[in-house]
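Q: Focus on the chain.
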Amino acid sequence: MSIAYQLSSVRNTLPEEVQLIAVSKTHSVGMIRDAYDAGQRLFGENRPQELREKYEVLPKDIEWHMIGHLQTNKVKYIAPFVKLIHSVDSSRLVDTIQREAAKCNRTVEILFEIRVADEETKTGWNFDELMQYIRTAPFGVMTNICVRGVMGIATNTDDEQIVRRDFEKLRHYFEMLKPYFTARFDTLSMGMSHDYPIAVECGATMVRVGSLIFGERDYSK
């Protein structure tokens, strides 16, 4: 089945208010263009250099999202154009994004990645540490970043109760953080190809779907 058909199938399962990020990491420029031609404009990547390469050859009205773990020394590759960085997991990364965005004279939107899964391999803030940081961080002088919300990844399991627990926990954290920010703090990014329907039920405003649109990834490329 075509990418356009798969994309339409996913869209038809989403409420109008939920944004769809088409996760195009490891997929070709041609496949992204097929999704673009079908009307998709929001794409997610997890490798800064790959994201930069795709940005340079694809239409400039694409809204690029960085969804993977981001090293501070790689921020410079995407700061000139990235719309939203989902995976902000440290104060050092916040400072680097602010500095690189200022060099480009633009504002970069970010999400705090919070660890909710019972897996040591998952990245993200411990919520108590994030709260302490937010209470003391001078966001008022960080004029080149805009905190839009939070992101998280549920435990990798077939147990829907555990997945739902993780998403509900993330939604709770999202609500707890709202009073510390402006009305633009409105984004709850959670849910992927295998679990996004549960995420939507738990209040996701943005889902990150890749394999259901583009097929399985070939990581050997």
